[in-house]
Amino acid sequence: METFLKILFTPVRLFFRTLVWFYDRFGSPGVAVTRAPERQAAVDAETKTWILYHFQSCPFCVRVRHQVTKLGLKIEMRDVLRNKEFEKELKDGTGLYQVPCLQIPSLDGPGQWMFESGDINEFLSQQFSK
Ligand SMILES: N[C@@H](CCC(=O)N[C@@H](CS)C(=O)NCC(=O)O)C(=O)O
Q: Over the stretch 104-118, which tens digit does the pLDDT of each residue have?
């Protein structure tokens, strides 16, 4: 029964993945933010340790990756499907397995973990739209 269901859902999964791939590749992240070099350096310094836990075929992650691109941020991306260590970090740090998740480490610890693509995008936009 399990094998039958797997076979049945494979084309659906592939179709969905293809849709997300197109959205990722061709969906516009919007007009890119441009900054003076000094401001960009300050933004880069602030986000240097930030991490986005994600995976490629997750549409909510695409949303956040587009926002990161649009805002010109250099946030480290950790793909939890490609690397089991990253998956473990996410689960150990939050007790959840949900992406996207933005980690903003503090100087002395894990800091803040943020879920929900809409909340993450809103937060990034508030911090870095200039
Ligand atoms: N409302 C959330 C939805 C996030 C969500 O559903 N993410 C899926 C991946 S697309 C997930 O992490 N699922 C957990 C799982 O696959 O076990 C958002 O906007 O970020």
A: 999 888 899 999 999
Tens digits of per-residue pLDDT, 80-98? 999 999 999 999 999 999 9
Secondary structure (3-state) at 130:
coil
- Give the residue whose CA is nearest to atom 10 of ligand 1: 58
Report the C-alpha gap between 19 and 107 in whole angstroms: 39
Domains of the chain: residue spans and CATH? 2-128 (3.40.30.10)
Question: Phi and psi for 16 in degrees, rounded to 5?
Answer: -60, -45
What are the strands, taking DSSP E only, across 17-128?
51-54, 76-79, 101-106, 109-115
- Tell me the C-alpha distance between 22 and 17, whole Å: 9
Q: 100 in ligand 1 pocket by Cβ < 6 Å? A: yes
Which tokens hold the place of 44?
Answer: 């880069």
Query: Ligand 1 centroid to 34 CA: how many Å?
Result: 30
Q: What is each CA distance from 7 to 3, 20, 57, in whole angstroms?
A: 6, 21, 19
In the reported structure, the alpha carbon of residue 35 is separated from the centroid of ligand 1 by a whole-number distance in angstroms of 32
58 lines ligand 1 (CB under 6 A): yes
